[in-house]
C-alpha cells in the first residue's frame, strides 16, 4: 500500500514522473519480515526490488550499481 500511495503522490505532483525510470527498494532489511515484504512487492510488480539497510550496509552496493546503470542508460538514450 505504501508503494502505491507514493506512486500516486508522485503522479499527482507531475504526471511525467510516471515515465521516468524507477528503482524500488525496501529499507530496514535488518528487521524481521523485510524479505517477505520485498518478495511480495517484487511479485506484484513483476520486476526486481532491492532490499537495503543503512544500519548494516546490506544491499547498498546493489543500490548504487542500479543507480549508476540507470543513469548511464539514460545518457545513452
Task: Provide structural commentary.
This protein is mainly α. The chain has three helices and two strands. The chain has a two-stranded parallel ribbon. The longest helix is centred in the C-terminal third of the chain and has 17 residues, at 60-76. The model has no long low-confidence stretch (mean pLDDT 92).
Q: Which class best fits the helix and strand makeup?
A: mainly alpha
Number of strands: 2
How would you sum up the major sheet? 2 strands, parallel
**Oligomeric state as shown:** single chain
The shape is globular
Report strand %.
Answer: 5-15%
Rg, Cα atoms, Å: 14 Å
**Helix-strand topology string:** HEHEH
Instruction: Look at the structure and give the mean pLDDT.
Output: 92
Tally of contiguous helical segments: 3
Give me the side-by-side strand order of the main sheet.
1-2
Summarize, please.
By secondary structure, the chain is mainly alpha-helical. It has helices at 2-13, 34-45, 60-76; strands spanning 25-26, 50-51.
Q: What is this structure's SSE topology?
A:
Elements: H1 2-13, E1 25-26, H2 34-45, E2 50-51, H3 60-76
Parallel strand pairs: 1-2
Features:
77 residues, mainly alpha, 3 helices
